[in-house]
Amino acid sequence: MPTIRALILSTIFLHLLLPHQQNSPPLASAAGGKWNLLHSNTGVSAMHMQLLNTDRVVIFDRTDFGPSNISLPDNHCRNNPRDLTLQIDCTAHSVEYDVASNSVRPLAVFTNVWCSSGAAMADGGLLQTGGFNDGERNARAFKPCNDNSCDWLEFDTVLRQPRWYATNHILPDGRQIIIGGRGQFNYEFFPRRRGADSSYDLPFLSETNDPIIENNLYPFVFLNVDGNLFIFANNRAILFDYVNGLVVKTYPMIPGGDPRSYPSSGSAVLLPLSNLQGGGDVIVEVLVCGGAPKGSFASANNGNFVRALNTCGRIRITDPNPQWVIETMPLARVMSDMVLLPNGNVLIINGASMGTSGWELGRNPVLTPVIYKPNNAIASRFETQKPSSIPRMYHSTAILIHDGRVLVSGSNAHAYYNFTGVLYPTELTMESFSPDYLDSKVAHLRPKIVAPTSHAQIRYGQRLDINFIVRGRINKNSIIVTMVSPPFTTHSFSMNQRLLILTNGNETSASSLLPFGGFKYQVRVTMPGSAILAPPGYYLLFVVYRDIPSEGIWIQIN
């Protein structure tokens, strides 16, 4: 697969993912988790985050609010006459966070990346598109490195249309599709094919646009196993054949009809995909949670903050006659993030219980995360976790990292950085949330992958033997392997988030007792058979035993 540049100009840990095996109940306890403050000042509020295969995280905000809290290196300054606030700016508006050293370094982004979108490409680089003002038709690339030499590369006016509040999805051929954005009821592809690609109308986006309020920005987009795209905007969804520009299926409106898209910002995930080689149909389900009732945005602008939605809608998008099933969350929530955990559960985190997205429009922060267990009975899927002490409101983000923790950062409900005299000050802190599977009480059950090594290159359909160690004997029926794509996260949606369960009935074998008392095991899995199931790129691979994942290792499928 070509690199971004070509397109646009010995013990390592594996994680096995366990979605609630029937023969062994999960050991992780409810109402748990642990919070740690990692950084009191990252310099930049994390409006956007992307984990890279170097275990570093690219973070960026907008560029037109004035100075940030971290200087550019070597007395460098950005001189941009088109900046709306500060034309000569010696501070950084993007940083790279190194998970291993818990450190940040400033990066130089030139034009405005406010409310933009992106995806990690097949070669592991980040390709980001759009923004505001001078950045609305630009693309930017970040090729990861380990020596601190890498920085943003910018490509001017390469998009067909301005893209502000758009959604990107990586496609099976390695390109990105860019859908929507403010005032844009269309889509385009990037990188473009020479002389071919234009922008193409998508009437569904104009049909779901509420006048003035919109309620269809940052649409929720997922690649279905038939190669079509599931697109949810406002309160409804379609299955879209992007190759031929055809709506294949129109789904029922979500019950109640309340909006779930920006600025009424709910969140959504594609639930874990399994049975990938089982000979039957792959069941594909989407979960949409939270949001704000109709009229909430206008009410909030008038000082009346309406209670957020406390419901989730779950739909099996591959059914011949798909219907929404509504579930009730323990807490109402708007502006939340939904993170797929290595064991197949979903972490619902961040947000507020009143109001909507927008400057100063949210109230009552929801400090308590919730874990959703999709394979439990419908009345027992939600478990509340220990609360944070830091409000994470508008422009906050959360992402999974390789050791199973979730990084949580950002929150800025103001047009500028504002640390005093406001309800919810601009947040430059970074925390980690550790689910109960990282508790020391279950450390003896945590798998440790010893082969393959990280960054192994894997082929579609390849049979892969994974060697791992557990301190004691295990129930081999309670082992699964999963692979998780690193998403681009902003505005309550993680673009390209995808988890595949690779083990379904494959044999697990054990070998002799090791000197320290542990046992070595091997599990054989078959990789996804096509780029439709798993678009090309880097994934974190996990071994999970009874809901307890190993650390993840990176694999590249191509």
TrEMBL record:
InterPro entries: Gal_Oxase/kelch_b-propeller, Gal_Oxidase_central_sf, Glyoxal_oxidase_N, GO-like_E_set, Ig-like_fold, Ig_E-set. Residues 47-437 form the Glyoxal oxidase N-terminal domain. Residues 1-19 form the signal peptide. SUPFAM superfamilies: E set domains, Galactose oxidase, central domain. Residues 446-557 form the Galactose oxidase-like Early set domain. The keyword Ion transport does not apply. It is found in: Secreted. Pfam families: Glyoxal_oxid_N, GO-like_E_set. Keywords: Oxidoreductase, Secreted, Signal. One of its GO terms (molecular function) is oxidoreductase activity. This is Aldehyde oxidase GLOX. It comes from Handroanthus impetiginosus. The lineage of its organism: Eukaryota, Viridiplantae, Streptophyta, Embryophyta, Tracheophyta.
